[in-house]
Amino acid sequence: MELDIDNIAEHYSRMRDQELIRVATQDARGLRPEVFDIIEKEIKKRNLNPDLLKGAKAQNKEYTIEELENYSEKLRTLACPICGQTENKLNGTIAHSVMSFLIFTTYKAVPFIACPQCLDKKNNNAMISSALLGWWGIPWGLLKTPTYIYRNIKAKTQNHLDNSNNTMLSFTLSNIGEIETYGSDTNKMTKLIQPKD
Q1: pLDDT single digits (tens) 92-113
Q2: Fewer CB within 10 A of the terminal residue: the chain, N end or C end?
């Protein structure tokens, strides 16, 4: 059963500013079209950044690869969030790692946005820790360790591409609302790409 539009409007009017900003920049996928009018009214009433509405709408569009590459360029030209260099364009990688303790095995895949050299280091560190600590669990450690080492080797082949790689494009699409809203704010974009590990 769908909520009526008055209940939705009341719900949005009770949100704190930070909550409304989070919805507009990160959680607007799948909102009904009439909800955007409610968000727009709340943004105006509270005198918030008008680009928040663009961020909300951006999450509900379909994009071509070329459009995503254009958005990703706003991130790729930033300073590396790990080493600070600005000579090479940023890209993305996923560092795959496995740790095992007899019958207990954990594995994770952590995305990073950084310069190609820092991405290589992240993949190398994940391979080393997996090679040293991944094998010790039966059966998953024995099965996952070579797979995750291979995934890091494969990811490294994408770290030095001239264009945005798949990880960078995926990160861009996942964060399209914030990029659309804050694309000209270097501080906010830098914070967006900070490592989460």
Answers
A1: 999 999 998 878 889 999 999 9
A2: N
Report the length, in residues, of the chain. Answer: 197
Placement of tokens 């992240």 in the chain: 122
Query: Is pTM, for the whole model, over 0.85?
Result: yes
Q: For residue 165, what is the DSSP state?
A: -
**pLDDT of 1 above 50:** no
Query: DSSP per residue over 51-101, as a string?
Result: HHHHHHHHTTS---HHHHHHHHHHHHTSPPTTT---SS--EEEEEEEEEEE
Distance CA 7, CA 12 (A): 9
